[in-house]
Design brief:
Elements (H helix, E strand, L loop, with lengths): L10 E11 L5 E2 L4 H14 L11 E4 L11 E5 L4 E5 L2 H14 L14 E10 L5 E7 L7 H11 L6 E5 L1 E2 L2 E2 L8 H4 L16 H13 L3 E8 L4 H6 L28 H17 L4 E5 L8 H16 L4 E5 L13 E4 L9 H8 L3 E4 L2 H4 L21 H5 L11 E9 L7 H8 L3 H9 L6 H18 L13
Parallel strand pairs: 2-3, 3-5, 7-8, 7-16, 8-11, 11-12, 12-13, 13-14, 14-15, 15-16
Antiparallel strand pairs: 1-6, 4-5, 4-6, 9-10
Helix pairs in contact: 1-2, 3-5, 3-12, 7-8
The structure holds ligand TNX.
The site of ligand TNX has 10 residues, from loops.
Length: 480
Amino acid sequence: MIPALIPAPRVLAVHDGVFELTADTALSGPECHATRFLAALLRRAAGHAPPSAREGALALTLDGPADLGEEGYRLDVTAEAVRLRARTEEGLFRGVQTLRQLLPAEIESPAPLPGPWRVPCVSITDTPRFRWRGVMLDVARHFFDVAAVKRFIDRAVPYKFNILHLHLTDDQGWRLEIPSHPRLTEHGATSQVGEGDGGHFTRADFTEIVAYAAAHHMTVVPEIDLPGHTQAAMASYPHLAPEGVTPELYRGIDVGFSQLAIHNPATYDFLDAVFTELAALTPGPYLHVGGDEALQTTAEDYAAFMTRTLPLAVRHDRTVVAWQEAAAAPDLPEGTHLQYWRPTHEPVPEPLAAAASRGLPLIMSPANRAYLDMKYDDDTALGLRWAGTVGVRQSYEWDPESLVPGARVVGVEAPLWTETLTTPDDLDHMLYPRLPGLAEVAWSPAPKDWPSYVTRLRAHTARWDAAGITSYHRSPELED
Ligand code: TNX
């Protein structure tokens, strides 16, 4: 039988026989997240930590061949040993996720189970198609606390995502403590969509998230959405608003009604302070400045705003990421990543096509494929449907490189907007079963093979059950 691996590895050969893990199976590996993660996984589900040895039957080594690159790995399972090789700790970590999927579904159990813990004999050589494989969580429309964000990370890890984009600010709330501007959270974080008191991350909270992500080889990309989506900031500091606007906290789900005071120099002092503090908390190389749906902002003002704002982010030695509208800004800093989000049936806007032809990297998040907040079908209670319904097959069967001809596509990101989502179980409902398919789009070579994929996907439901993920969408594709 072909093991149900998602994302599918680049090269997989299945051999006769199995490796059986017992309480005596020793683990060796470098002192790193991958080794620790594997030991913890086995301890949790099998009930005993593997003994360590200089050369274990389970052996992780940093001696992979050069063609494995940064995140590739080679996994060889024989009846005698499991050998995982990579060039980097990150590569080992991705390989451990594959080994995890080769183990029985019960390995996902939070409490010890008797086993047996058998792994089919295989040889796998695997490298990702794209370097940016992201998930995004909107903590602004509804606030999700540190525990919920960690759980969200846990959901993404088995599928080899490496980017956690946090949408930290929007009209409905400002979610990160900025000590120089305390009212952003004292006041601007107290609302959210509908009912509820909102909430925010202290700097310690944010640091805890960054560390947890890093321990799972995920890079946090924080977003401060500008110059629209800024009602919460303006409600906290009214001088940030254009004259004549009375900023109040907002609990609705409209978009495109707010904008900062673009011609007030104090706006840029504010942004300088925010980026300085954000950069200090963010070890990763990216800062996301939003830039979407600034519907009140004239083209001229938008350009003026970005011209003053982008250098404030770049100053901290960071690569700017922005939604696709920012393609219209003049003088985008070198390497700026543009995030495509409009549905694929819309024509590619001219400025985006032009930016792509200049070689700016694109991240693909087309709403009618990659938006995890879209309803699955007409009966889905949660979610939105402005981009249509997005079923499991539709979110899987597309090619990120075919949307903008000639573009340098660096990856795929699956955003989860939370206008309608209030609990971690709501998040799970929208993530599963679509998230694994988007992982395969991002990691595995093209083209996509739906029959193979859906067979593997069905097998994964046993893993979600074992992990205690109870709220996943019972999509018709999961039935045989
Ligand atoms: C569009 S995507 C938005 C968000 C909404 C989302 C809901 C993007 C850059 N802007 O403000 O939350 O649709 O699907």
